[in-house]
Amino acid sequence: MKIKVISVNISEKKGTVKVPVGQIELNSNGVAGDAHAGKWHRQVSLLGTESFRKFEITAGRALQYGEFAENITTEGIVLYETHPLDRFVIGDVLLEVTQIGKKCHGDGCAIYREVGNCVMPKEGIFCRVLNPGIIKDGDTVEYIPKVFKVKVITLSDRASAGEYEDRSGPRVVQLIDEYFTSQGWKADIERVVIPDDADLLYQHIKDAAGSDILITTGGTGIGPRDFTVDVIKPMLTKEIPGIMDLIRVKYGAEKPNALVSRSVAGVIGNTLVYTLPGSVKAVEEYLAEITKTIRHSVFMLNGLDMH
């Protein structure tokens, strides 16, 4: 089914229903003339007719578009099944999803005062404007799910020479793929095996610019060929010391050798970077902790306030 705009709506005051209009103009602040426009992440609100039909049964009457204070009423997609960082193209307008649902205002909301409930906190979504333009009734909507780019680099002279099979890199790929699947996210994962060569590692990291996540495995110890951290740490624009500190303490309490790892986590531009030891066991232990932080880290990097 084609996704399309059914209605566009504006209100001059917060907490009131919005009024359908012929078209709306979107700028860097959101919808021109709308009370919710501003320099924040919830500039534009959307609600689907799919949600309207369900709530009409609860309300016991037909509902008008804009009554839930949505700027854009759509048809053809279950909006609340999308994810933050997904995008919509409507004509020249590019919107990025920033939040699914919201806190209910209770008596501060007109529809809540009438019915005692509201669908927007559960099924409405919010976007920010990436490219401005005009939206009007009947416009076609293109939905573009976010695909996370992940690069996994194994550093090993012997594995790169084919002397033994790389096992840590494939395990990283498997665990990361499972993580993204559990989140309902899509991921494009690239894996490479390179020798212990500092210049080659540096180039691969530079080439990974634009990736969402970069994970290395191998070269995090104190041996003469362990230079992964020495290459990557100066490249970090921000370090995230707590992640690796926790892992070292957690596993080092039982296995003191784990305390020798110099692994680091941080950010290069908008890329999350994690350096893991080279063993499969260590990969499993490290990623068990790292994956707990990825969702929040991704949102922070993209300026989304999910508190």
CATH class of the largest domain: Alpha Beta
| Alpha carbon gyration radius | 24 Å
How would you describe the shape? elongated
Number of domains: 2
How much is the average pLDDT? 91
Structural class: alpha+beta
Under CATH, the homologous superfamily of the largest domain reads MoaB/Mog-like domain
Low-pLDDT ranges = none
The run of helices and strands is EEEEEHEEEHHEEEEHHEHEHEHEEH
The major pleated sheet works out as: 8 strands, mixed
Beta content comes to 25-35%
SS summary, helix count: 9
- Say what the CATH topology of the largest domain is: Molybdenum Cofactor Biosythetic Enzyme, Chain A
* Widest sheet: strand ordering: 2-1-6-5-9-8-7-11
Query: Helix coverage percent of residues?
Result: 25-40%
Q: What is the distance, rounded to the nearest whole angstrom, between the alpha carbons of the first and last residues?
A: 35 Å
Question: Which architecture of the largest domain does the CATH hierarchy give at level 2?
Answer: 3-Layer(aba) Sandwich
**Topology, number of strands:** 17
Helices, strands, pairings?
Blueprint: E1 4-10, E2 19-21, E3 23-27, E4 30-31, E5 44-48, H1 49-59, E6 72-75, E7 87-90, E8 93-100, H2 110-115, H3 120-123, E9 125-131, E10 133-136, E11 142-144, E12 147-155, H4 157-160, H5 168-182, E13 186-194, H6 198-207, E14 213-217, H7 228-232, E15 238-239, H8 241-252, E16 265-268, E17 271-276, H9 280-301
Helix pairs in contact: 5-9, 8-9
